[in-house]
């Protein structure tokens, strides 16, 4: 698959410019994306890891979700899909009960038919949970073909709702 030209340009900038390692790209993630407004930043190494198909962190996933939200907004369908901040639910983000409360609070701000994308990293790789609160249904999507077992911690976060 060919990378978008904007990503190629960004990677060339990071690779060819003498960018100090502490130089950041700052982003504001609007309240409508995750339910609260927050500022975040991406480091040059985050961009090269993303472009190189290396392991990425929650910040990169969150910024990408902001981009997806912008696309949904342009298509006038953002009311159909909501996002849960991956930094609030992934491993090492507090107790399972705390993470369940954060997810429940986010789901309460829905009209009922909206689905929520919830990237989750149990510590090994990213999986995607798609939550349909009104139907009390959660889909676990794991990109690794050998992982056919639902991560127990992710399951406990959802069951705690």
Automatic annotation (TrEMBL):
<dbReference type="InterPro" id="IPR038765">
    <property type="entry name" value="Papain-like_cys_pep_sf"/>
</dbReference>
<protein>
    <recommendedName>
        <fullName>Ubiquitin-like protease family profile domain-containing protein</fullName>
    </recommendedName>
</protein>
């Amino acid at each position: 698959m060919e990378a978008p030209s904007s990503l190629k340009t960004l990677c060339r900038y990071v690779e060819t410019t003498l960018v100090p390692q502490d130089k950041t790209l700052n982003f504001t993630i609007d309240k409508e994306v995750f339910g609260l407004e927050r500022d975040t930043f991406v480091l040059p190494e985050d961009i090269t890891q993303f472009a190189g198909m290396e392991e990425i962190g929650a910040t990169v996933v969150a910024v990408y979700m902001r981009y997806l939200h912008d696309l949904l907004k342009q298509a006038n369908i953002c009311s159909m899909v909501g996002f849960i901040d991956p930094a609030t639910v992934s491993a090492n983000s507090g107790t399972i009960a705390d993470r369940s409360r954060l997810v429940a609070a986010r789901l309460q701000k829905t009209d009922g038919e909206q689905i929520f994308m919830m990237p989750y990293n149990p510590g090994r790789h990213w999986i995607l949970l798609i939550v349909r609160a009104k139907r009390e249904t959660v889909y676990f999507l794991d990109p690794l073909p050998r992982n056919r077992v639902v991560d127990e911690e992710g399951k406990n976060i959802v069951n705690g709702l």
